[in-house]
Amino acid sequence: MGVSEKISDKIEREASIVLSKKMILWIFIITIVMMFAAWTSAYIFKRAEGNWLIFEMPTLMLYSTIVLLVSSFSMHMAYSSAKKDNLERVKIALIFTTILGFIFVVLQLFSFKSLIDKEIYFTGKSSNVAASFLYILTFIHALHIVAGIVFLLITLAKSLGNNIHSKNMLTLELCATFWHFLDGLWVFLYVFLYYIR
Amino acid sequence: MAHLEHTAVHGHDVHDEHHEEHHELSFIRKYIFSEDHKVIGKQFLITGLIWAVIGGTLSMIFRLQLGLPNADLEWLRPILGEWITPDHKLSQEFYLALVTMHGTIMVFFVLTAGLSGTFSNFLIPLQIGARDMASGFLNMLSYWFFFVSGVLMFISLFIETGPASGGWVIYPPLSAVQEAMPGSGLGMTLWLCAMALFIISSLLGGINYITTIINLRTKGMTFDRLPLTIWAFFLTAIIGVLSFPVLLSAALLLIFDRSFGTSFFLSDIYINGHALDHVGGSPILFQHLFWFLGHPEVYIVLLPALGITSEIISTNSRKPIFGYKAMIGSMIGITFLSFIVWAHHMFVTGMNPFLGSIFMLLTLIIAVPSAVKAFNYITTLWQGNLIFTPGMLFSIGLVSVFISGGVTGIILGNAALDVHLHDTYFVVAHFHLVMGSASFFGFMAGVYHWFPKMFGRMMDERLGYVHFWMTFVGVYLVFFPMHYQGIAGFPRRYYTYTVYNAFNSFHDLEAFISIAAFITFGAQFIFGFNFFYSIFKGRPASSNPWRSNTLEWTTPLHPGHGNWVGEIPTVYRWPYDYSKPGAEDDFIPQTVPYSQTASSNTEHDAELLKNEQSH
Ligand code: HEM
Ligand SMILES: [Cu+2]
Questions:
Q1: Does B261 contact chain A (CB < 8 Å)?
Q2: What is the pTM for the complete model shown?
Q3: What angle separates helix B92-104 from helix B186-215, to the nearest 10 degrees?
Q4: How many domains does chain A have?
Q5: Which residue lies with its CA nearest to atom 43 of ligand 1?
Q6: Would you put residue B130 in left (φ > 0), alpha (ψ -120 to 50) or beta?
Q7: Which of A:9-38 have CB within 8 Å of B?
Q8: What is the ipTM of this complex?
Q9: Could you tell me which of B193, B216, B234, B474 has the fewest CB atoms within 10 Å of its CB?
């Protein structure tokens, strides 16, 4: 009797550790949201003040958006395959997601180049605050994507060691949450910059 | 068998991730890179106290300049070197640096990290009944980010061009243009790096506090049985998590303006007749971003102190806290409102007067929950069996300075009055009473009260009384006269006032304030002595010296890693059952079930008893 109680206690405690880890991630996400909320609010404030360059979003960014959306899809594949214990699919989907993440970052860098070709500069005499904001928002987001890729690589390593399956989902779940968030954040930024410029 | 079970559960609880190094941790793991919340709390405490001495010393130096403007300061040359000018005066640049660093250190390092870091870490697991924080590792990182941040800030005090000097609010353009003043160069860069690390530290801490409070409460510890300290730490952490990232955003933009040539906050600046390349930015934008953190920050500093006070006043009045739910409600109200009043710091920035009146209205609404809290403290004290421990005295002192300083907040909150009072000593008086003194009193109250739990010994009471009375009288003597100066228009942050005829008549008052400040500062060393002496030589404490209800007093006198030996106690009641009619004793700890207190159970309790038994 006493012993079985202890076991249920232990299960409860382990559940609360899993819950804690998820919550830590979510609160971390909230802090990122607040940072971007600050920048986008500042953007709106500054735009209302005038002296604002109306820029064109580089077309490459449309492609990068699509790439990231697809990567979210493959991330979800990894997740649902892991739930069904289809370990090979998990690995393939994770590799695919990671590669798409890389492609996204490269596309963003090329978009910066295309902006520079159009003489839209981040800094310097001929740059406008609007352009600086455009660079900052996309650049810091890309930095987060790099962090996401690192997280993906860690998850992938675990998965290659067959350590991710339906009974051990936590890492993958956290990774997926973070990745979907970064994806959603980008879609938001893209729409925001596209319509409010 | 029972014993076996104990160790099994114990071992698992504590070291779920890293098995088996149960007892003998190396010195480094135990005291330096410790993941035990109690050790981390003490690390924050000691570091915070050291910073308090540094921050206080800086203010003593600028009080010298203000109170005794003609004094010969040559004797400071061995310490301050070139900051003493050839004619034996304090250099003007250094005066500004002193004011800036004093503000920064006190607000962030002492009253945010020192206060919240110490007590959130130390008390949250102990009072909610948890083995440790949700993530001991992140918690350790939180301290070490703070430490490194402090190292950078400390280094900046000693560089040739001096530390940041544009005020703790670091408004651009002063802070953004490196040539603006000596402190805007390397000093400002170090300030920004230090603060970036500090923000990370705060966020790591806050994330942990929130997660721990939500997930790791012991059985029976529902949200409506949490001690008010925990509620305060919880809401403080929420405020921090929502507002510190915004400061980080602002700081990043500032860094880009300073070092990478963007113009977020800069426009049309001329230096020596030459226009800078920066055009099109807005310095006001920075103020918005800064105060979106800045105002919540003042509550980050205050709420923990209020929580600590609630606990101490209730315990030492031997009465339940008056209006437990109202206290929680007011704190939630304050938390919410603190995010929508920031522009009351910006009434004179040329904002639309209509917008100004909206912020004025919202600002004045904050006075309501604040007043509810003040009244609840007073009604808790009313007709209580007051026990004047040093912690209790500091808590009552907090109520006093909180009211004195809060009242002037209402005056400042009126846009029309603030136009006159902004950036005068009236503001200095306001926030030193309501934030500086109140939070400092809460800090001291907490140290006196939880010292027995931290170190297993008692602090000396008589020294505590001397410390309290000198501090209490001292802060009023220092800060009260500043109201009059402020009403007369005396501007803050000025190096010298003797060149203005209008303010020359304040000469004696300035000298008076400075002398009072020196004495008050000196009195803190009584505390310092008491604190360190008692750690080693204090009278050994009993396990529950204040006869208090909360869970931390059910742990062993020197709780080990994991806090409780054996199972974590279950909680059956709220923490404020003091002097309950019909009870044998004048306190009933949270761990006592209703089934054992038949004589004092109310009708409502009888229902809870049924619940208890159906489990
Ligand atoms: C009754 C509630 C309060 C009201 C209505 C209020 C209002 C104000 C206003 C309008 C100002 C701006 C004055 C100016 O710069 O011209 C101000 C400044 C300030 N208040 Fe309060 N306040 C209240 C409570 C508090 C509390 C509880 C704290 C801290 C715990 C606090 C800390 C500060 C600080 C630090 C400043 C000055 C910041 C600076 O310019 O360096 N206030 N307050
Ligand atoms: Cu404010």
A1: yes
A2: 0.93
A3: 10
A4: 1
A5: B409
A6: beta
A7: 9-10, 13-14, 16-17, 19-21, 23-24, 27-28, 30-32, 34-35, 37-38
A8: 0.93
A9: B193
